[in-house]
């Protein structure tokens, strides 16, 4: 029997984030008329920090280790907290969901590129082949099984913002694995995530201040905004980041990135459910292609 680097528990951990991130994209579009995108990112992470405080209180005892690792932690807060979702929320205002998902699906390519350039991690031919299978599955969903629809796609500023977001996420994922952070801090997941969030909130606040200085739209407070904030903080924020961090530690960033390509598939299924449409055969074919890519990359 061939050996696999991927266990069922790790696969489950890496499947939860794309499911929640698909919901995050839907929520981001729904909240766009209610709050400016960078302010939405600030409010989201402020709420995540409040949720984390009862779990990550040991950060105070580990403050010495945090200060010793301040530089990489600041970079992780900038890329994973301050930039990624803010860029995504901004992109949703000027680009179509299909374009955004297509650009985000290039994440495995950027993950391999960042690993090779900054962490001396050369991708294998197996990882390259796995990426091709995974991207083929994503394209199948985005084109609804008709490759001719690719010719109708056009780039807008939001697509470029999402490309930058994908690069930020690749850098953040590699830092989760390779950043020189004290072992005691890494060993406490809540404290480790809390320090990233607290430092990231500083970047978020700076960006939100610039957003308001440039004349942002007013915030429409109410139950829809409160419910949306609670969802994106608890699900795509706290739970997804925790699962992603554990999954990257177990499987590595390159293999984990292939799971992120499940996001457009989940998004398509959510849309079908909300619209009352039955899943189509290409959904099953796309799922098979994405899983094939994951299996190829997981083989030793």
Automatic annotation (TrEMBL):
For this protein, the record's SUPFAM superfamilies field holds: Multidrug resistance efflux transporter EmrE (SSF103481)
Q: Where in the cell is it found?
A: Cell membrane
- Fetch the InterPro entries from UniProt: Diverse_Substrate_Transporter (IPR051258), EamA_dom (IPR000620), EmrE-like (IPR037185)
Q: Cite the entry's keywords alphabetically.
A: Cell membrane, Membrane, Transmembrane, Transmembrane helix
Q: Which residues form a coiled coil?
A: none
Q: Which Pfam families match?
A: EamA
Its main localization is: membrane
Q: Per UniProt, what is the membrane topology?
A: Multi-pass membrane protein
Where are the bilayer-spanning segments? 42-61, 73-92, 98-120, 129-147, 159-177, 189-209, 221-243, 255-275, 281-298
Its GO CC terms? plasma membrane
Descriptive protein name: EamA family transporter
Species this protein is from: Vandammella animalimorsus
